[in-house]
Amino acid sequence: MIIDRKKEERLQQKNRGNVDADNGDALDMQERRMSKMKKEAEREIKERELARQPHCLVIHRGTVGKYVKSLELDLRTVMEPNTAKSLKTLKRNNVKDFIVNGAVLGVTNMMVLTSSEASLQLRMMRFSQGPTLTFKVNQYSLNRDVVSFQKRPIATDNLMKKSPLVIMNGFNDGSKKHLKLVQTFIQNMFPSINVDTVSLSTLKRCLIVSYDAEKDEVDMRHYAVRVVASGLTKPTKKLVQAGKSATKELPDLSKFKDISDYFLNPGQLSDSEFEGEQQEVELSQDINQSRGCTAGDKSNIRLHEIGPRLTLELVKIQEGIDDGEVLYHKFQEKTPEQLLKLRAHIDKKRQIKKRKEQENEHRVIHRLKIVQENREREEAELKAIREKAARTQAAATGQAEEVENEREKDREIALNRERDHKRKLKEEQSTDSGAPKRKKK
Q1: Residue 376: which H helix or E strand, with range?
Q2: What SS3 state is found at 52?
Q3: Domain residue spans in the chain?
Q4: Fewer CB under 10 Å: which end of the chain, C or N?
Q5: DSSP single-letter state for residue 175
Q6: How far apart are alpha carbons 286 and 290 in whole angstroms?
Q7: Residue 113 class from Cβ within 10 Å (0-12 exposed, 13-18 middle, 19+ buried)?
Q8: Residues in contact with 186: Cβ distance below 8 Å, sequence separation at least 6, in sequence order
Q9: How confident is the model at residue 440 (pLDDT cuts 50, 70, 90)?
Q10: Closest CA to 220 of 109, 74, 110
Q11: Residue 144, Cα to own-chain centre: how many angstroms?
């Protein structure tokens, strides 16, 4: 009896354990499902936000040199991550191909580099209604040229994961309305930033676009943004940042007799690291705690140029994509009569283009009809050959009557289908004619 009771207790404990295990497995499965649903929802939100952001293509057209191709790649790094970094173009591709295919992929802007014997031009286009801005590139420097002059270049691999902060300077001249259009155009090439909700740690780069009124030129500079704690000398920074990463170790203090020699020795500071009087900024968010850049602390903002550099001269602004009215031209001025003639010419050109598109569409439809008719004729001929072969075989085997009966049945089925089709067409026509017509306003 005692043994039986012990067995019963063991069985009860085992059953309780199985029930608890089943309940735990069910809870784990439910938690996994919930976490999976949350991840999918977050992924959908990110995809929607990414689809709303502007995307830009950077290409070249025509024959260009190796330096212009390098400039094309450098401009793609500026537009990252919302660009096609490894886009390959073919000689047979034209601008219209990129416009048609880019609109399907969510592309909103395009930059086109073209070179001639006289100059290098950069065109900025807005899909799909325009406008088109044409710049003459007076001077440019590649990324490698900018970095080669720096004593301590910084790594830029992690900087391209977020879009740069765009800073416009000198475009608020009320007498020059075309500058306002240029400012709005360039700002809309990059994602907008909400000042109230933006995370300061994501602002790793900035693009400064300045207008020089004396030279009538636009300067573009691309910088990496670094925030460093203010009031710290180089020796102090080494001690504060020691052990924060694998490359930052404690400094060697064996050559100093006293710790004060380490801090007070002026030879420890290099010219590039010396900190004089700089404007200090109080941070509202934590940026880098390992460097002492936390909320409420005083910090200095430093800019390290990473390239490329561009000095541009605005030549013209045009409606549409290379086919509209010229809104601004630096070297040509039109009288009102000439503008009216140009508008009439542009309207006529658009009508001709529309008519040609319609003709091409009709031509394609006509060709498709001819192909369909030829296919039906070939199928009918093939069917006749098969029927002839079947009759010949039936006559040889003595089954001609059965074959004729089957053919009669097929003809009756085809006639019935044709009658039903005609009857349905008549019913549809009668319903359309009997429906009340809508009055025109």
Answers
A1: helix 336-397
A2: helix
A3: 56-231+275-312, 343-412
A4: C
A5: T
A6: 10
A7: buried
A8: 124, 166, 168, 209
A9: very low
A10: 74
A11: 25
How confident is the model at residue 280, as a pLDDT?
A: 67
Cα–Cα distance measured from residue 269 to residue 233, given in angstroms and rounded to the nearest whole number? 8
Q: What is the pLDDT of residues 45-56, one digit of tens each?
A: 888 888 888 999
Distances (CA, A) of 419 to 230, 246, 376, 426: 91, 86, 21, 11
166 φ, ψ (degrees, to nearest 5): -95, 125
What pLDDT was estimated at residue 269?
A: 43
Place of tokens 């093939």: 382
- pLDDT single digits (tens) 6-27: 666 666 665 665 555 556 667 7
Taking residue 110's Cβ as centre, other Cβ atoms within 10 Å add up to: 22
Q: Please tell me whether the overall predicted TM-score, pTM, comes out greater than 0.85 for this model.
A: no
Q: How far apart are CA 421 and CA 117, in angstroms?
A: 67
Angle between helices 400-434 and 336-397 (to 10 degrees): 150
Contact 280, 298 (CB under 8 A): yes
The one-letter amino acid at 346: I
Mean pLDDT, rounded, for 104-120 = 90
- Dump strand ranges (E) for 253-334: 281-282, 298-305, 309-318, 326-329
Both tokens of 417, joined, read 């289908």
Three-class DSSP category at 424: helix
The torsion defined by the Cα of 17, 22, 25 and 31, in degrees rounded to 10, comes to: -120
Query: CA dihedral in degrees (422, 428, 433, 439; nearest 10)?
Result: -150
Task: Tell me what percent of the chain is helix, strand and coil, each rounded to the nearest 5.
Answer: 50, 20, 30
Residue ranges of E strands in 203-343: 205-212, 217-229, 281-282, 298-305, 309-318, 326-329
Please give the share of the chain, as a percent, with pLDDT higher than 90: 25
Instruction: Please state which CATH number belongs to domain 56-231+275-312.
Output: 3.40.50.10480
pLDDT at 270: 43
